[in-house]
Amino acid sequence: MVWRTAKIGRLIVTIAFSIAILLSALGLPDTANGSQNSAQNSPGGYVKYTLILANNTLINGNFVNTYNPMSPLGIAYDPSNGYIYVANYGSGTVSVIDGANNTVIATIPVGQGPEGIAYNPSNGYIYVANWGSGTVSVIDGTTVIANITVGSGPECIAYDPSNGYIYVTDSGSGTVSIIYTGVSTNSSSTSLVTTSTTTSTSTSTSVSTNSTSISSVTPPATSTTPTSTKPTPSAVPTWAVAVIVVVAVLIVALLMIKRRKP
Fold first, then answer.
1. The pTM is what?
2. Phi/psi at 256 (nearest 5 deg)?
């Protein structure tokens, strides 16, 4: 009788553990790195909330969620509206978070593989570097108003308040695209100058500027493919993981029942 009770207990533990794995595979935040509060505050702060972009769920503390194909990378803050913009490399979108309540209020389709993102206070626009499309998307609030063609594989992006330029690193072409934004906010045209850096045999470095390289603003739907390759993150389908877990639980249960003594 004691042996049978212990066997049933182990079976229950196994099933409970399998259910936990199944919940994790379905993307539910059941794993935590420990709750955090002000008593654990470090000089730099602490994680008060975790926002899951895939289902717009806000959780207290620092939680680790299962991988999802959105793959958020770049992030920027717009002080004019209090929104936080997150570039999702895997889904080709930008999530807009309202800082007042920490919820996703919009998901904006941009180019392929968005990475770097920056806010331009001179015109209030958000600039997003789309690695896979070779473009920079310009966002006004929650709307893409333009796509600017740049070099191959744009990744990082930064704004210089001293001259109003947006600087974009083009990893595929080895260049830096310099976007001139000193135009009226009602204008649909944006100038672009691309510079390439070459190193001579001496220790000096020369920078050549293609002053005649002026890119026109293309419609938001236009995208180009860079010459370099970069894999898009992929994930095992959650249904496949769920099936594997259920089958494993059934096998374990059958083996335990078969080995039970009469």
1. 0.60
2. -65, -40
